[in-house]
Amino acid sequence: MSSTRNNSFNEHSKKDANLSDNVFSKKNKQKPENIINWCLKNQINPIVQCILANFYYFGIWVEKDEHKAFMYYQKSAKMCNPKGLFHVGHCYQNGIGVVKDEYKAFIYYKKSAEIG
């Protein structure tokens, strides 16, 4: 993956995580642990899965853990969430939280593009 595409992934993921931070804590004056617990209780939503993954990917409110980030991106992808599919592809392409596998990366990127 080119550094430009990798930077784009990081920028978009970081923006999503920061948006979650702003919406959940500053606007509603929620404590980070309450937000994490709420997300953990609402895992049936693929967007929540991506939010949790971003928290672990960047170490926001939790200890950075690329394997957990991959796990939550994968849960979102299994629900056919385009962002989840894209992020799983990124993880496979770069060996983030999972063994690097460019073929699997391609498959997930393709599914993400097909869904939109």
Automatic annotation (TrEMBL):
Pfam families: Sel1 (PF08238). It comes from the Eukaryota. Residues 1-10 have a biased composition (Polar residues). Residues 1-23 are annotated as: Disordered. This is HCP-like protein.
